[in-house]
Amino acid sequence: xxxxxxxxxxxxxxxxxxxxxxxxxxxxxxxxxxxxxxxxxxxxxxxxxxxxxxxxxxxxxxxxxxxxxxxxxxxxxxxxxxxxxxxxxxxxxxxxxxxxxxxxxxxxxxxxxxxxxxxxxxxxxxxxxxxxxxxxxxxxxxxxxxxxxxxxxxxxxxxxxxxxxxxxxxxxxxxxxxxxxxxxxxxxxxxxxxxxxxxxxxxxxxxxxxxxxxxxxxxxxxxxxxxxxxxxxxxxxxxxxxxxxxxxxxxxxxxxxxxxxxxxxxxxxxxxxxxxxxxxxxxxxxxxxxxxxxxxxxxxxxxxxxxxxx
Length: 310
Description:
The protein is an all-alpha fold and 310 residues long. It has a domain at 59-153 and 219-304: Up-down Bundle (Methane Monooxygenase Hydroxylase, Chain G, domain 1), CATH 1.20.58.480. The protein is 59% helix and 0% strand. Helix 5 (61-87) packs antiparallel against helix 6 and helix 6 packs parallel to helix 14 (236-265). It comes from Flavobacterium laiguense. It holds the Pfam family Trp_dioxygenase. Keywords: Dioxygenase, Oxidoreductase. One of its GO terms (molecular function) is heme binding.
C-alpha cells in the first residue's frame, strides 16, 4: 500500500490523539479490522425504538397517543441538548446564543403544529375509552418539560404567583420546588394535600429537579443573557429570539395543548376531568399561571394581556 501525504497526515493525527490519552495507536487500528460496518438501523437503534410502544388496551388510536408523546419526549431531549450548549458555552456570543435559541424555538414550533395529530388524529370515542386506563398518569408528569423550564429562567418566574412575594434567591430549593406553579395542579385546593399524581412524580424526580435547580441557578438562559455585555443585550436579533422563545413555549404551545385537550375532555363523552384529576383549564391556561421566562423583555401592556386569547 502506498501511503500518500494525506493518509500520512491522518495517521499522524490519530497517533497524537491516542498518545494524548496514553493509548497504543496500533491496538486501536487493529481493532478496526474486526469492527462491523455501521448501518442506518444500528446507528438509529431502529428495532429498539420501534418496540417501545406498549398498548394497555385494544383500541387502535391508543398507539397514536403513545407514539405522539414519545416523539414529544425526544424533542424535549433535543431542546435540553441545545440549551445546555448555551448555558455551558465558554465564550458565549450573541450569534451563537441567537442561533441555538432559534433551534429550540423551531423544536417548539414543531410541537405546536403537531397538536393537529392530537386534535384531529384520534377518534373522540376511542380516546375517551382508553384514557381511563391511563389514570392516574398524566402529561403533567413529563420531567423533561419541567427541566426545560428550570433551564430557561430564574426560579421566581416559575413560582406560583400567589407565593412569589415570599420567595427569593435565598429560599431553599426544596421550598421553591414545593411552590412551583404546576404544584397547584396536584394539590387539593382546600387542604393543600398532594395527590397521588404529584406524590409519585416527586418520588421519581424530586432529587433530579433539585439538582437541575442548583445547576442552572446562575446559568439558565435568562442569567446567560444578563451576563452578556449591555450592548449585546440590546441586539435586536437576540431580543427577538428571546421573545419568540418565551411566547412560543408559554403561550403558543400551551394553547395548542389546551385546545387539543378541550376537544376531548369537553366532548361531553366523559366526566370532564383530566386523567390526573387536576383543574386542567386553570393549570394549563397561561392567563392564570402567567408563565413568563423573560418578563423584562415585554412591555407593561404585553404583560397585562399575557395569554389572553384574541
